[in-house]
Design brief:
Elements lengths: L12 H14 L6 H13 L1 H19 L11 H16 L6 H6 L3 H18 L13 H6 L8 E2 L5 E6 L5 E6 L3 E4 L15 E3 L5 E6 L5 E6 L8 E6 L47 E5 L1 E9 L5 E8 L7 E6 L6 E2 L6 E7 L2 E6 L24 E5 L6 E4 L4 E6 L5 E11 L6 E14 L22 E10 L5 E6 L5 E7 L6 E8 L14 E7 L3 E3 L2 E5 L11 E7 L2 E6 L6 E3 L2
Antiparallel strand pairs: 1-4, 2-3, 2-30, 3-5, 4-29, 6-7, 7-8, 8-9, 10-11, 11-12, 12-13, 14-15, 15-16, 16-17, 18-19, 19-20, 20-21, 22-23, 23-24, 24-25, 26-27, 27-28, 28-29
Amino acid sequence: MTLPFRRRHHDDEAAHDRARALTSTEMLEPLDDADASWLAGHLESCAECQVDREAFLADRALLRGLRAHTPEPPRDLWARTSAAIERESRTRRGRAPARTARARSLPFGAAAGALIVLVVIGASLIPPIAPPSSTPGNSAVGLASPEPQATTFEVTAGPVAYLRSSADGSWEFVSADVDGVCPRTRPSCRPLAEDEPGRPLSLAGTPVGVTISPNDDQLVVEAHGTGPGPDKIYVLPVPSASPAATPAPTAGATHGIPSGEPQTAVPATPKPTTPGPSPTPVVALEIASGVKVVGEAAYSADGKWLAFSARPSDGSSGPDLYLWTVGQPTAVAVTTDHRTYFSAWLGTQVLASRVGEPVVPAASDGPTAAPQRVEVHPSSFLLDPASLAETAIGQSDLWLPVVDPSGHRAAFWSGTLMPTADGLDWQLGTGKVVLSDWSSGPIPAATADPATPEPTAAPALGPTGTAVTVVSDRAASFQAKFDPSGTRLAVWVGEQLNADIGRLHLVVLDPKTGAIAEGPEPLAGTPALRRFSIGIGRLAWVTPSGQDGQDSTVQVLGWSSNDFGEIRSIPAKALYLVR
C-alpha cells in the first residue's frame, strides 16, 4: 500500500509538507510574494503536489456548493438508519463493557460515514423557516423533496432590469425575475440573476440614465458625449434573450445582438431573414443631441409618447419640456421658457412644473447686512401631448407632483425653490415632501336638465385636504414614485442638487384610506444612487460603490403583504438601473 505521507528516498519530505501547507493557506488568504513564488516553482516540478492541490480545490468547490444546494437525503434514509440503530442497540445490550474498546477500534472511514449520515439526517429534520409551496403535479414528491433554500419566501414581484459593465468594458442587459427574497434578519439568498446570462448591448458612450418602454421592447439611453462628441439621447431595441442551448456553440454576437433564434420575439429587434455568421447590426435612433436630461424620462402608459425635460449641454439656458412620438425621427421641445420640468404622466396627460419669476428681496438696512435669500414659488400644470393645451393647477408652491394609479393620492414638494449660483437651475428651498389627497377637477355634465338641482361643485384640479409630511430629511432635490397598487410610495432625497448619492425611503399606505400606515418604515433612508425603480411587489436601487467594502450592487426589497425581504446582485464596477 502506498501512503501519501511516506518518506521518499528521492525527494525532501519537508518540501512536500510545505507545499501542502501553503496550498491550504492560499485558500484562506493571499500568500506573500516569497511563498507564492516558491509554491509556483515547486508545483512545476512535482506532479504529486499538483494532484494534491487540484484535489484540495475540488473539495473546496464541492463544499462551497453545498451552501446553495443542500444534499437531498433518500426518502427511506431515516427509516433505514433508525432500524440500524435499534439493531445495534439490541446487540450491544448485555456487553456494555466492550463499548469503549469497540469505539476505539472503529475505522476512520466508518466514523466519517456515520458523521455524514448524521449531517444529512439533521439537514432533513430541521424545518424550514417558511415552508415552500408543494411541487405541482405530484404532492408526494413535494413533501419528500423540500426546497433547499429554506431561508427564502416567495413574492409575486415584477422583474428587475439593469445594465452592467463587463471586464472588457462592454455592456450587458440583464432582466432578472424576483420570485423569492430572504428575510432581512437572515440575508442569505443566492445573488440576484446569478444564473441569468447578460445580453450583449452596444452603447454609444457611457450611459447616464436608461428608460424602458411599457412593452419592454425599447431602451431610451441618455449618454455623455465622448471627446468632442455631444451628449445624446437615443433609442435602441432591447436585446433579445439568449438562444436555447445547443451542443455546438453558435456564432458570436455583433453590436450587442446575439446570434441564433431568440426564445421570445421582440418587436423592435430586427431578425435576420437568412442565416449567416452574424446578425445585422442594430442602428440606434438618435432623438436628441447636445442636451442633457434633467430629472427622468418616462413613457406614457400606452407607449406612444416619451416625455422628458432637458437643457443645453453648454449650460446656456435652463430646461424645457420635450416630447417624442414613437416612430418619429426626433424629440421636439414644446416649451421655450427654459423653466419647465417634467414630473410624471397622469393618464394620457403630462404633469409638469414651472419655476416662477424670482422675486428680488428688498434691500436690507445697513451696508454690512447679510444678503437675503432669494426664493421663488413654483406652479404645476397638465399638458395634452396631442394639442399642447395646458391646464393650470391652481395651488401654488406645488413642485413635481406624482399621482398614484388610482388618481386619488399625490406626493410632491410643498414649498419654495432657490436658484443655484449660475441662475440656471433650482433646488428645494423652504418646505417639505408631503402626501395629500388629489382631485381630478370638475367633470362637466353631458346634458343640462333644469329640473335637476345643480350638484355641489367638485374640488378644483390638484391637491385637496390636509397634507402630511412623508420625509423630513434635509433635501436639495427629491424623486417620488408610487408602485402599481398605489399602496407603496418610494421617495429619494439628495442633500445636494446634483448629488448622485442620497437616501431612499419606502412608505406603506393603507389600501382603504390611503393614509400612511402605522408602524416602522420598511426602508428608512438607506443610501442609494439617484435612479431607482419600483414595480409590482418590489423596490430596486443601486448601492453606492464602497458600501460594505465592495462594488455597487442592485439591491431589491421585495414584499408579500406586510412581509419584507431582500436580495441583491453580484457586485459590479458599473450598474445602471433600467426604470
